[in-house]
Amino acid sequence: MKEEYLDILSEKGEPTGVSRTYSDVHEEGLIHRAVHVWLVNPQKCILLQKRAAEKEAYPNYWDISASGHVSAGQTSIEGAQMETKEELGLSLPASAFLYFATFGEQIILNNNTYINKEFQDIYIVRMNVKLSDMHFDHEVSELKWVEFEKFKLMSKDEKSMLVPHAEEYDQLIRYIENL
């Protein structure tokens, strides 16, 4: 399998013109871009995915509806569309994605063998879709819609097995409260 290449960014999130392999990026802690896509239905439920047991970062944790790295040469919105297609089986036009925010994250996992320094572009997709209409890939083991009030509780409970994105959850909650 051919390894994915990622564009390397400066400390300010600007392209450097250099691309490196996924492995190099995470071994050396190089800055790159990722996307997070939140699906929110008209009842204000939030789609969560359960990460597969084989994932390097946070296996078996509940996570963002769809997320992943922006491949070399892709725009952020193209990355969001790709991850939504790969992880949920949904082909959506760029116009379905509402840009929400960008967060920086730096974490070191797996006994210092996985260094993640990234800018995460956050998108919200407001749509009503049944679980049976989605088809997830090998990176996802389960999908579920979570009622808004339950998600608020999960986001504050360290035992909820929710990937830690506290600032992002807080801003998402504020956004949904104002819908």
TrEMBL record:
Entries under CDD domains matching the protein: NUDIX_Hydrolase (cd04692)
Pfam families this protein is in? NUDIX
The GO terms this record gives for MF are: isopentenyl-diphosphate delta-isomerase activity
- Domain Nudix hydrolase residue range list: 30-168
CC annotations in GO: cytoplasm
The record, for Gene3D superfamilies, names: Nucleoside Triphosphate Pyrophosphohydrolase
Q: What InterPro entries does this protein map onto? A: NUDIX_hydrolase-like_dom_sf, NUDIX_hydrolase_dom
Q: Which GO terms describe its biological process?
A: isopentenyl diphosphate biosynthetic process
Q: What is this protein called?
A: Nudix hydrolase domain-containing protein
